[in-house]
């Protein structure tokens, strides 16, 4: 009888997982058991061990339906920031994105010395320095010399910031002062001496270099560049563009290539111009990269089924690998959407003309034809390179009105033949979606309506229509089909992945739920349906907003990766972005991979493309996505702060959107504006930050404010350039047991005035042994 192989250590299992993932292979229980020669008893032991390792935060995934991956382990290629030099003069880096609340202190990465030694050739990569962002190829060191990894510099992505952005304010003597645009730097202005102001005029957005700092006064600065006037139309988004280093001017070579691009032809394409595909987009959309069509399946073997067609603009036909357009698109990563402008990934000649699926105009497309069964599940799918012609350009509201029996002159002729089959197909697709049970969060999104001068006219919450859900569901079907096709073909691709929540975040959620009498199950696989059940339980209750916010914060951040680990939020095993190549570089990579894998042309993903190269691309475009999100959010904050700047002293209703030791973050009901109430203004008590409860609690009075609570506030300060608002709390908090007497005290009801704090009183927040809360 053969002897069973010895049980491997946790360290050996983690090493094996990392080696396999580095080679682009997924790892589950079966692969681990095979690698270590485990018999049936060993497999049972392995199942228990992997469950323990997942519970203790060492790995993610269950090893059966979801592949395992080291929790907190770094990918082979990562964007990092070089933080310092150690005592030996070696550069030390840390991951650019790192969640200390979940993962603890960030790992230290030793930058490897250049392979060519001290003498660098003229064409060598630029030498990195402290403060630089660099793309690193990582090697695990397991704590050697205090370092978790060593990193070889693949590319310096951005030099250290030597400049500060701000608004120039002219002084009578010819000098000036710099008003910083960063919220964190509010109140810390710089002096710009006479003769160092350049050609800056009052109100200009400028870039300055700090020349001298003093402990006893503001630093001196010199204007390096005038970027534009803050008084001009659309100036607010200009701040974010420059602050985040977003490329916004196309190089001449890219513009020349776009200008010379030819119109579409039938060469190498199927003629689908008679198929009545329609585009359904926001009313103000300028580019249209997806069109849809549906019809009952005529196959008698599929009764009640539908054939859904999703056609996507064929950007790969114009943006070829390695071209000037391609290099610029990769640098941008994605289009950036501000309330007052769009910074596109591709020139308008491509994005708004040749690749925009305009009504009644011939356009090249990469289309997927999806056959659905009567229960909504997918029976089959196929991809085609086609020439199409959109039969109608519709807005979401226009399409919805037609379905609801209010067609207009454009939708009336196609209501029965085109729109009704689309809604019928969506009806059966929604059944499969409900069966899959993706995460269902109910958090309304606000939209700014601007005046012609770029200022805010009003803030609205657009109605969520069935037309929106229809397009979203069809796009998800197309994205899944793309990922499945490429996996089956053995092709490299870039996935869109979303990890399951960490153990620490789940514990925090459990504590919040326990405070309102809901018990979080401790056993069973983690699935989106768990969160959906919780959200259904609190629907319509006073805790609905609180729990929706906490569940949102429990979720991990989605990212682009070259190695798949699934999409938790959508509850999908494999998922890739395919449907927006005009505005996302990831989709362009997927298009090229499909063209190459299915032999649809010569402009597909080059055969020489390696996994390492796609890892680098995925890292870069994930960082670009986060950059765009931050810039968009900051621009919205600035525009709303401008909108409210004339309402100092006005009072508003809102909710507590965040809590930390420094105070309360308030989100106003009407505008969604975010502002801050410093803890020092809360009243005559010492306030302890209860991180688990997301609350500030007065030690003497027991008065507390918790995430999600309704509040009434007064606006006391607005800094439009920084997008910062400061509020004064007018309503009282709820009461909790103080912890000393154990009894509850009376409180002023919500909406009533609360007594003012004594003049000069500075209340403090005691940490109570808790870590500081995260900044929102």
How would you characterize this protein structure?
It is found in: Cytoplasm. InterPro entries: CSD2, NA-bd_OB-fold, RNase_II/R, RNase_II/R_CS, RNase_II/RNase_R, RNase_R, RNR_Ribonuclease, S1_domain. 3'-5' exoribonuclease that releases 5'-nucleoside monophosphates and is involved in maturation of structured RNAs. Its EC number is 3.1.13.1. Keywords: Cytoplasm, Exonuclease, Hydrolase, Nuclease, RNA-binding. By secondary structure, the chain is of the alpha+beta class. The chain has 16 helices and 35 strands. The longest helix is centred in the last third of the chain and has 34 residues, at 611-644. The model is unreliable at 116-124 and 739-776 (pLDDT under 50). The protein starts with 9 loop residues before the first helix and ends in a 10-residue tail after the last strand. Helix 2 crosses helix 3 and helix 11 (466-488) crosses helix 15 (585-597). Strand 3 and strand 4 (91-95) form a beta hairpin. The strands form ten sheets. Strands 3-4-5-7-6 form a five-stranded mixed β-barrel. The protein is globular, with a radius of gyration of 28 Å.
């Amino acid at each position: 009888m053969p002897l069973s192989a010895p049980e491997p250590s946790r360290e050996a299992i983690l090493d094996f997982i990392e080696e396999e993932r580095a080679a682009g292979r997924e790892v589950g229980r079966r692969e681990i058991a095979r690698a270590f020669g485990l018999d049936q008893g060993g497999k049972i032991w392995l199942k228990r061990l992997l469950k323990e390792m997942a519970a203790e935060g060492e790995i993610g995934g269950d090893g059966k339906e979801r592949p395992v991956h080291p929790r907190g382990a770094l990918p082979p290629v990562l964007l990092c920031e070089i933080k310092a030099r150690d005592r030996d003069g070696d550069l030390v880096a840390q991951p650019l994105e790192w969640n200390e609340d979940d993962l603890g202190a960030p790992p230290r990465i030793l930058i490897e010395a250049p392979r060519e030694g001290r003498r660098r050739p003229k064409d060598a990569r630029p030498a990195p320095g402290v403060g630089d962002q660099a793309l690193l190829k990582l090697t695990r060191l397991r704590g050697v010399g205090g370092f978790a990894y060593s990193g070889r510099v693949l590319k310096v992505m951005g030099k250290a910031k030597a400049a500060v952005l701000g608004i120039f304010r002219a002084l009578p003597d010819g000098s000036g002062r710099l008003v910083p645009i960063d919220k964190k730097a509010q109140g810390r202005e710089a002096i710009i001496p006479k003769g160092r102001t350049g050609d800056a005029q009052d109100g200009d957005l400028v870039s300055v270099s700090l020349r001298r700092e003093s402990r006893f006064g503001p630093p001196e600065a010199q204007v390096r560049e005038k970027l534009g006037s803050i008084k001009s139309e659309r100036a607010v988004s200009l701040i974010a563009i420059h602050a985040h280093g977003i490329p916004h001017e196309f190089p001449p070579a890219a513009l020349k290539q776009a200008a010379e691009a030819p119109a579409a032809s039938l060469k190498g394409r199927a003629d689908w111009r008679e198929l009545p595909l329609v585009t359904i987009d926001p009313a103000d959309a300028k580019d249209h990269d997806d069109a849809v069509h549906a019809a009952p399946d005529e196959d008698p073997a599929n009764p009640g089924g539908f054939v859904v067609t999703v056609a996507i603009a064929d950007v790969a036909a114009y943006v070829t690998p390695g071209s000037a357009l391609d290099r610029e698109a990769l640098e941008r990563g994605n289009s950036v959407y501000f309330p007052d402008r769009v910074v596109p990934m591709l020139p308008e000649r491509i994005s708004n003309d040749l690749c925009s699926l305009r009504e009644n105009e011939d356009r090249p497309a990469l289309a997927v034809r999806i056959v659905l069964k009567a229960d909504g599940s997918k029976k089959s799918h196929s991809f085609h390179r086609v020439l199409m012609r959109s039969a109608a350009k519709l807005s979401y509201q226009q399409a919805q009105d037609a379905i609801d029996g209010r067609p207009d002159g454009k939708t009336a002729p196609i209501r029965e033949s085109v729109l009704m089959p689309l809604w019928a197909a969506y009806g059966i697709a929604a059944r499969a979606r409900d069966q899959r049970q993706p995460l269902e969060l109910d958090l309304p999104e606000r939209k700014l309506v601007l005046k012609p001068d770029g200022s805010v006219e009003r803030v609205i919450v657009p109605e969520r229509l069935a037309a929106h859900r229809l397009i979203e569901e069809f796009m998800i079907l197309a994205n899944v089909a793309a990922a499945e096709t490429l996996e089956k073909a053995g092709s490299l691709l870039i996935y869109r992945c979303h990890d399951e929540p960490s153990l620490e975040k789940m514990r925090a959620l459990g504590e919040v739920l326990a405070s309102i009498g809901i018990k979080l199950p401790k056993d069973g696989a983690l699935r989106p349906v768990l969160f959906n059940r919780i959200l259904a339980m609190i629907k319509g209750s006073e805790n609905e907003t609180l729990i929706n916010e906490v569940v949102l914060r429990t979720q991990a951040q989605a990212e682009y990766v070259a190695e798949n680990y699934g999409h938790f939020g959508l509850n999908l095993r494999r998922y890739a972005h395919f449907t927006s190549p005009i505005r996302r570089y990831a989709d362009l990579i997927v298009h090229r991979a499909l063209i190459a894998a299915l032999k649809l042309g010569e402009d597909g993903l080059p055969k020489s493309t390696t996994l390492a190269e796609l890892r680098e691309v995925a890292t870069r475009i994930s960082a670009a996505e986060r950059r765009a999100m931050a810039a968009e959010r900051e621009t919205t904050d600035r525009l709303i702060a401008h909108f409210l700047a004339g309402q100092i002293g006005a009072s508003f209703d809102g909710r507590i959107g965040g809590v930390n030791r420094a105070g309360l973050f308030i989100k106003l009901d009407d505008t969604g504006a975010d502002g801050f109430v410093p803890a020092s203004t809360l009243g005559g008590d010492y306030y302890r930050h209860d991180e688990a409860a997301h609350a500030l609690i007065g030690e003497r009075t027991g008065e507390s404010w918790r995430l999600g609570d309704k509040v009434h506030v007064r606006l006391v300060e607005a800094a439009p350039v920084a997008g910062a608002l400061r509020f004064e709390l007018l309503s009282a908090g709820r009461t909790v047991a103080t912890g000393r007497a154990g009894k509850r005290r009376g409180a002023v009801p919500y909406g009533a005035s609360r007594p003012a704090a004594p003049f000069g009183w500075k209340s403090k927040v005691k940490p109570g042994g808790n870590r500081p809360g995260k900044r929102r």
